[in-house]
Amino acid sequence: MAAPGPSPQQMAAMQQQFAAEAAKRGMTPEQFAQKQREQLTADAEKLGLTTEQYVAQLRTRAMQQHQQQQQQQAQQAQQQGGQPGQQQQQGQAQAPQQHQHQTQQQVPVNPNNPPDPKAIAVANWLRSQNLKPRTCIMDGQRKDMFKVKRAIRAIESPAYAKAAAKKNSLLPPVTDRASAENVFKLLPLSLLALRVSKVDPHAGHDHAKPKNRTKGLWTVKIEQHQETDPMMHYVWLYDGPQWKQKAMAAAVVAGIFAVVLFPLWPIMLRQGVWYLSVGMMGLLGLFFAMSIFRLILFCVTVFAAPPGLWLFPNLFEDVGFFDSFKPLWGWQETKESKKAKKSKGKGKASAPAVTEAAAPSATTASATTTSAEPASTPAAAVKRDLMLHYAFERNSDSSPSEEVASLKGLSMFLTVLLVD
């Protein structure tokens, strides 16, 4: 005898839950239903079944689970001496909630359980993969956040299968999408990664939002239900092996003891430290002297050859040590040069043509320079054209006295270009 279908109350609860899931993803119920059909078709193709056979199989499983739940409830009712009718009503009331848990794929979390070795192995492997993590703020601390879909994609990759096939590997095997999700669920079960959602840290405050907020830096909170939807965000609570931190702490302690015991060092080591400190002080004094000289040079060239020349223009920029001394010199950036860089970065191909039409003499100078340096690239020629075009525009809008100073600066610039 076939099991009875869901009641109207259950159907209404299912429809409400379906609409809520669609609204959570920013879709209409029709769009969400279409997405579910596509997912069912993909899962059926993986199992080598048609969509109808796969749906019938899922329906059979659901009906069997429903029958088992009813039998368990009837047995509990008989043991407790309650009325079967009341137990059936309670079962019908609990059915929408159970369907809701199955739809959202909630993962129970028990903080009292110790971390599973398999979960730690999965966490270590995922930490070594490129999940495109983002930095977020949780409880005032910076954490790494990632999307579920990227973690599932990494678990389904051939690299994971290769790592899981190694001898003595604790990584669980993955055969399909469901097993990949089960492997990912090991992380929240062991509290290695938890689902979070974005919150406004200034919500409920009377003051206005700060203007210096960092774009893309979310403030998040941990959600109660650990779901495995592909678009959900998880935050890492597992930092990996702590041997690096322990080694750094040991090195710091050893350094402190070495400084404290400095009077007991051999005389040669103490002399070496003295010479080293004198050399460092000399380098520091040379750095300050170079900084003062480049500032004086810029102040002189601002009036002699505007817009001004900087020696080591990247000296105080946020770059590496060697990149701070590259290039050797550079002109002061102006609003026009910044706009030209932005337009060049956006890939506007019309900039070289406009420059050639506006300044034919500049094009000639650029061509001369190119013939003298056959190894120069088109990007360098475009940059020179832009600089010359800016110089000619400056001359056309300035007064006669300013034209003389600008022409002097332009002649200086052309001389350096030709020599270079």
Q: What do you see in this structure?
A:
The structure is a single chain. The protein has helices spanning 8-24, 29-47, 51-80, 84-104, 117-127, 148-155, 158-164, 177-184, 186-189, 243-260, 267-304, 335-345, 350-358, 360-372, 378-397, 400-419; strands at residues 134-138, 141-147, 193-199, 218-222, 233-236, 309-311, 329-331. Strand 1 (134-138) and strand 2 form a beta hairpin. Helix 2 packs across helix 3 and helix 6 packs across helix 8 (177-184). It is an alpha+beta fold. Helix content is 60%, strand content 8%. It has a five-stranded mixed barrel with strand order 1-2-5-3-4. The chain folds into four domains: 8-104, no CATH class; 117-204 and 213-241, no CATH class; 245-286; 293-419, no CATH class. The chain contains 16 helices and seven strands. The longest helix has 38 residues, at 267-304. The radius of gyration is 35 Å and the shape is elongated.
Short description:
By secondary structure, this protein is an alpha+beta fold. The chain is 60% helix and 8% strand. It has 16 helices and seven strands.
Helix content: 55-70%
What is the end-to-end distance?
Answer: 93 Å
Number of strands: 7
Biggest β-sheet: count, sense, barrel? 5 strands, mixed, barrel
| Continuous helix count | 16
Shape: elongated
**For the largest beta sheet, what order do the strands appear in spatially?**
1-2-5-3-4
Average the pLDDT over all residues and give the rounded result: 75
Structural class: alpha+beta
Report the order of strands and helices. Answer: HHHHHEEHHHHEEEHHEEHHHHH
Number of domains: 4
Give me the Rg, rounded. Answer: 35 Å
Into which percentage range does the β-strand content fall? 5-15%
Low-confidence stretches: 95-105, 349-384, 386-407, 413-420
Assembly state: single chain
Biased composition (Low complexity): 1-21, 64-110, 348-378
Membrane topology: Multi-pass membrane protein
GO biological process, one term: post-translational protein targeting to membrane, translocation
Main location: endoplasmic reticulum
